[in-house]
From TrEMBL:
This is FAD-binding domain-containing protein. One of its GO terms (molecular function) is FAD binding. PANTHER family: CONDITIONED MEDIUM FACTOR RECEPTOR 1 (PTHR42685:SF22), GERANYLGERANYL DIPHOSPHATE REDUCTASE (PTHR42685). SUPFAM superfamilies: FAD/NAD(P)-binding domain. Residues 3-121 form the FAD-binding domain. Pfam families: FAD_binding_3. It comes from the Bacteria.
Length: 297
């Protein structure tokens, strides 16, 4: 089978490309390995540039229950510093955001297939092998697998960090989090906390792989981090969330220098900004839409 445009990955980058192509009258094919977006390792902070990009794609985060954020708070063991953000931002779970984007892609006319994974890409033949053995060729391929490598076009990097994410259920320990993104700093990493649409808090940590490897496990690492971040320990009341999403190879600072003809790397497959900046989603949306416009030009 040959399709005009094949998008691998249904995160913000892949969906932005699909919506942009479909709104221009194409019928792009998007393949997402999860049957339903279930959330991923991400702080869920939507900056003002992400909010603008979502609006352009026809998504209203406030209608999805996004919580407004107008301040940030930096917390260390010794100090707390708080300041206004330059513009209004928002907190929204990735589960909610990714579902809304995929729904919008489908509504715009994209052919969205959930629950199938791409196994390998042949950039010269411009074809992709799927987990069921099928091969799809395309005039253009948009690689949007985010934090995950694709055989045939894997990113090469020497250093990377680990990312962890969990939800903290609504409780008094989350008091003072309304309207704020709170960042707790510790050696070789940080934890971000913000309220999301269902009243729970999203807890997302970035920590060097060396530190995680030395600890040996998430359960062994957390008490060590809590000693350096007592205010975070107080928020968690000494309990460790039962389930963490985890990703082991986040290559902050990595950038694609080139890609083959008809191959568009978008989102984290194009460049990885430090997650502390809270701008990865905005970049993913912008790069997906720009690559789609470049293909259409
Ligand atoms: C710890 C941490 C915290 C962060 N916090 C924030 C934040 O608060 N705000 C912010 O703006 N950015 C944040 N980021 C960055 C942000 O998560 C990414 O930049 C953004 O998700 C990139 O979007 P993407 O679409 O490129 O990839 P992803 O969001 O990773 O989406 C990729 C999609 O591709 C799918 N996929 C992967 N492999 C395959 C395959 N083989 N076949 C089919 N589908 C596949 C995945 O299931 C997924 O749905 C954070 C990053 C980290 C590591």
């Amino acid at each position: 089978m040959t399709v005009p445009a094949l998008i691998i990955g249904g995160g913000p980058a892949g969906s932005a490309a699909a919506i942009t192509l479909a709104m221009a009258g194409m019928r792009p094919k998007l393949i997402e390995r999860h049957k339903l977006p279930a959330g991923c390792v991400c702080g869920g902070f939507l900056g003002w540039d992400a909010l603008r990009a979502l609006e352009a794609l026809g998504i209203d985060p406030w209608a999805l229950g996004a919580r407004p954020i107008s301040r940030f708070r930096l917390v260390t063991a010794e100090r707390v510093v708080e300041a206004e953000l330059p513009a209004l931002a928002a907190g929204l779970s990735r589960k909610m955001l990714d579902r809304a984007l995929l729904d919008a892609a489908r509504a715009a006319g994209a052919d969205v297939t959930l629950g199938r994974a791409a196994r390998a890409i042949d950039p010269l033949a411009r074809s992709v092998r799927l987990d069921d053995g099928d091969t799809i060729a395309a005039n253009a391929i948009f690689l949007a697998t985010g934090k995950h490598e694709m055989r045939g076009l894997a990113r090469r990097f020497a250093h990377s960090s680990a990312g962890l994410r969990a939800s903290l259920p609504s409780s008094q320990r989350l008091d003072g989090l309304a309207d704020v993104v709170e960042l707790h700093l510790f050696d070789d990493g940080y934890a971000g906390l913000l309220m999301q649409e269902d009243g729970s808090a999203n807890l997302c940590l970035s920590v060097s792989r060396d530190r995680l490897n030395e600890a040996g496990s998430i359960a062994a690492l957390l008490p060590d981090l809590m000693r350096q971040a007592p205010a975070l320990a107080a928020r968690m009341e000494g309990t460790v969330p039962p389930r963490f999403d985890a990703v082991s190879g986040v290559p902050y600072g990595w950038r694609a220098r080139n890609s083959g003809e008809g191959i568009f790397r978008i989102g984290d497959q194009a460049a990885v900004i430090a997650s502390l900046a809270g701008d990865g989603i905005a970049i993913a949306l912008a790069s997906g839409a720009s690559a789609a416009r470049a293909m259409l030009a």
